Amino acid sequence: IQSIGSQQEFMSFDSKNGSKIQGSMAEQKTHLSVLEIATHEHEKDFKRAGRGYESFAESSTLKDEEKAYENAVASYLKSGDFEDAERVIGLWQKKFPASQAAAQALRNSATLLFIQGEFASTVVALRKISHLYKDADSLEAAIQIAEALGDDSSRVSFWQEYKRDFSKAGIRIFCGLKIVLHHMLVSQVDSGL
Question: Scanning 25, 34, 43, 88, which has its CA 20 to 30 A from the CA of 142?
Answer without folding.
Answer: 88
